[in-house]
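Subject: Sanity check before I submit

Could someone independently write out the structure tokens for this chain? I want to compare against mine line by line before I put it in a report. The sequence has 178 residues.
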Amino acid sequence: MMYRMRFYMDLTLTCLCFLLFYHSICIVKPEERRKNIMKRKIRFALGITMLAIFFTGCAAGDSDEIVVVSRADGSGTRGAFIELFGIEEKDANGNRVDNTTDEATVVNSTSIVMTIVAGNKNAIGYISLGSLNDTVKAVKVDGVEPTVENIKNNTYKVFRPFIIAIRDDISELAQDQF
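---
Independent answer below. Compare away.
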């Protein structure tokens, strides 16, 4: 699929844009305590702590501590998660604010997220759908399982496109790559 876009800066450039793939996020648990979450409930949560309470069924007074596992700031997966679930907001000055809880265990790789979540029944995290394996369970969002087929038919809506933009006056050699 090819898109044409115009970028306006000091001058107008015409670029060719190509959809490379869709980046989809899934929320993972070690067990299937709660199998579904409504996306709108995540948006209204004050960061991922409320999300974790909802998923695990833990409430005040429960002796089991919820372990929230998040990717590091600057991670593409974290960026997608906070964007797609509405965890990121803008302050009065228009600056982006990430409302991920300060109590989250922040890690720098998907494999560490999965290892921590798989090893703790009260842990919750998020990963790219392409990394999902049988060590953790994916949770349905709005009643829809995170699968490639459900992304293609637009029923699982937690994804964003990755598009590459190139100048339309590139060399023949470069054109052969697209």
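---
OP: Matches mine. For the report I'm noting this point. The first helix runs from residue 39 to 44.
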